[in-house]
Amino acid sequence: MEEYRIGPWDHLEGTVDPGIVLEQYVPPELEAIAWKVAELYEMKVSDMTLVTSKPDKGGAIWKMNTDRGPRSIKVLHREPKRSLFSVGSQEYLVNQGARVPSLIRTKDDRLYVEAGGKLWIVTEWIESLVQASKIDLEGAAQLCTGLGEFHKLSQGYVPPFGAARSTRLPRWPKYYEKIIAKIGWFRDIAQAYPELSASSRLLSIVDDYDRQAREIYEKFKLSSYPRMAAMGDPHWGLAHQDYGWSNGQMGPGGIWIIDLDGVAYDLPIRDLRKLITSTMDDMGVWDLTWIRGMIEAYHQANPIDRETFELLWLDMAFPNEFYKHVKEIVYQPTLFMETELNGILDRVLIAESTKWQALAELEQDKANYVPGHYPEQEAAVLLPVERTERVLEGQELPMPELLPPAAMVEPVTTQPNIIPISPMEPVAVLPLIETGQPARRIAASRPRRTAKDKSQRRNAKALPPQRNTKTRPARQDVKVLPLARDTKAQPAAQDAKALPVAQDAKAQPAAKRRRKPASSQKRSAAKKSVLKKQAAKKRSVQKSASLLKPAVRVTPPKRRTKPDRSKQALKLAPKQKQKTSQTKKPAGVFNPNKNRAGKTTRVRKPAAANNRKAARR
């Protein structure tokens, strides 16, 4: 059986009982997973009650009564890596002393459980939480104070390993551009349904909101936002992104903040702006006293500087509330324009009548805040991109205009001043040492030995090898090269004594005679001993054979006479056919012209004999 994968269940609206509200309903498979997850904790659950659910996203939260007291169990509807970012932030805030529900660890000491493709957490349930008062400024101020404390304690948060980094800090320009583009969509939809009564009314005001959005965006691009965003995510900390009267409630010690699964890095005043503008929208009027009181309460908990106040003012001036209420027109244009649009426009226009007067006075408060320190950063330039007023199928999008090329810097053509260097005294230089292979001696060519020399060498008596009593210097692998040019080459060492030579041996002069090395002498002596043994063995074999066989006269082969090749002899001699076969010799007669197999072989004359013959001719 496949594991149940948690997902949205808003498509079940027509299949459940008519009296069931989807926000108070979860599929049975999801509730079964909740009970299995609860078994992984050190607690005994007596009952479990669904508090609320998000059928369009796939999230839910239950209250459990356990033997350890009331607790909550919640399934986070985002991807596990994104949810891990939120779980890590909640644990970090608890350790920092923030008033957020603490996480309960599992039996194996983990902060969460992954089941059904989502992350599950169990937290303590705070019974005494109540909403702050919405009818007076005191309740709103308490809510802003709790928000400022939350933002200050979240600074420095670093997500755990494996978590997806969630940040909206660099996305402010994209947010404004998206709203400007969708306000143009509102105009296109109203023009596409001219028969509806709300269409003409929307067309009469949409141009004003489009102009407001573009003007505020141009001022935003001139603000200190790029330098502030360059400070980095941990510097600013986390923003709740969904802070309001339901997620910030009064409890022990002050405001407790719940529902942290959507936190992300951001400029903290984005939460404050959402709280102020939503409160003014609920009141139907922009009350400057309330606005100043809420900002001051936040400032006491988390001080803001002049640059932050300027961004807060620009964000409040942007038509956020108009976009938030009218954006549903994109999904069901006809139904929305017939049933809801007229009432929404009445509400928005009433609040708009007091908005700009309050903002004009509030802008004067910027001087009450000290400037912040944000060093200049080499941030990317925000390029102006021309967007189409309406998007139609098959229409080409215009290419954005390119910025003019940067001014070319002319190269420097002047020659730099060269400082002459004064001559210095010669410094003694150490001799250069080569560490390569030792130089090899080239043997001097010796004259070719003649036949007379060879015979004299054979007749000479063998001399016993004698050692050189003078110690020869060790062979060095390092050769020192002298640098001085006038140094004369040292003569070769001449103190080596000539080896004594026997008197009866006709030795060559010492200057021309070259003594064989000891290794060569040893090889020659060994070779001679082997030849002597072979000759003695051969003689013994022949002697034994002669004793066994009768005496046979060995006739040496006839010597070939030199033919007379003169012209006269050739004329007188008759033509005779030469016999190729040789006269057979009796068996047992030694024939040196035959090999062991009995075949006649031709004896080649040495090359020296041929040379002498040619010389005589």
From TrEMBL:
UniProt GO cellular component terms: endospore-forming forespore
Q: Which residues form the signal peptide?
A: none
Q: Which domain of life is it from?
A: Bacteria
Which Gene3D superfamilies does the annotation name?
A: 3.90.1200.10, Phosphorylase Kinase, domain 1
Locate the compositionally biased regions of type Basic residues: 524-541, 596-605
- Comp. bias (Low complexity): 569-585, 606-617
Where are the residues of the annotated region Disordered?
Answer: 439-617
Keyword annotations for this protein, in alphabetical order, are: Capsid protein, Virion
Q: Which InterPro entries match?
A: CotS-like, Kinase-like_dom_sf, Spore_coat_CotS
Q: Which PANTHER family match?
A: SPORE COAT PROTEIN I (PTHR39179)
> What is the protein name stated in its UniProt record?
CotS family spore coat protein
Q: Which organism is it from?
A: Paenibacillus validus
Query: What does the organism's lineage look like at the top?
Result: Bacteria, Bacillati, Bacillota, Bacilli, Bacillales
